[in-house]
Amino acid sequence: MSDRRTRLIAALDTRDPQQAMRWANAVSPHAAAIKLGLEFAYAAGFEAVSDIAAGRELFLDLKLHDIPNTVGAAIGSLSRISPAMLTIHASGGAAMVTAARKACDENFSAERRPLLLAVTVLTSLDDAGLAETGVQDGVRTQVLRLAELALRNGANGLICSAHELAALRAEFGDAPVLITPGIRPRGAAAGDQKRVMTPGEAREAGADWIVVGRPITEASDPQAAAAAIAAELAG
Ligand SMILES: O=C(O)c1cc(=O)[nH]c(=O)n1[C@@H]1O[C@H](COP(=O)(O)O)[C@@H](O)[C@H]1O
User: Fewest CB within 10 angstroms: 118, 138, 183, 188, which?
Assistant: First the structure.
């Protein structure tokens, strides 16, 4: 049994700034952070990202994955937004993670520096889906491999599914920030997610944060849905 405090990140996946603001206000008593990602940033732009994020903890999920020079420069371009958390793909390789670390350190003061989080294996992949990308070792082995690469090269934490939390805690201890999407309250539709757990199970397994999108945003009452998840996390 874990006594870790596991907090909720609400993924506000929409193109519409007014919708995002409504959701942000609705979940704010229950979610300690909001996530804005590719769908929102591409449609609404980064001014809108800043507007929605004002006064909130922002998980900016751009999943950067490019050559080291481009990733470092892109992170430099984000310094005016000051996200609390920022994502890259660990599979971009050691030099890419190192460039991202350097860019975080050089472009943000210590108080404003985002946590650099490395996506290991997307929660929409199972062993078979991963094998189609050429990786035959299975999800768990690949998550551990990419976790080691990312943490060794300066990532503050990892994005993984809750299924890998125990193995990651056993290998890397309490220090890395572990964030798990692919979270579904009992009975909720998995959709395109393959490696899912409930909020309570993710807390027990050692998550620092869980990311939840559609179970909140597609609920008839998003505020109540967020409240129920927060209550489950509080145990
Ligand atoms: O980086 C992420 O946040 C992420 C990584 C991952 O492996 N799986 C994953 O689902 N996510 C994000 O987490 C959110 C999950 O949304 P729902 O499936 O609607 O709860 C989406 O915004 C995804 O982009």
Answer: 138
What pLDDT band is residue 196 in, cutting at 50, 70 and 90? very high
Is 194 considered catalytic here? no
Q: What is d(CA 158, CA 45) in angstroms, rounded to the nearest whole number?
A: 26
Amino acid at 213: G
Strand partners, 37: 61
Which residue's alpha carbon is nearest to atom 24 within ligand 1?
37
Question: How many contiguous H segments (helices) and E segments (strands) does the chain have?
Answer: 10, 8
Phi, psi of 88 (to 5 degrees): -130, 165
- Of the residues 19, 41, 51, 63, only one is catalytic, namely 63
Tell me what percent of the chain is helix, strand and coil, each rounded to the nearest 5: 45, 15, 35
Enumerate domains of the chain plus CATH numbers: 7-234 (3.20.20.70)
ipTM of the complex: 0.99
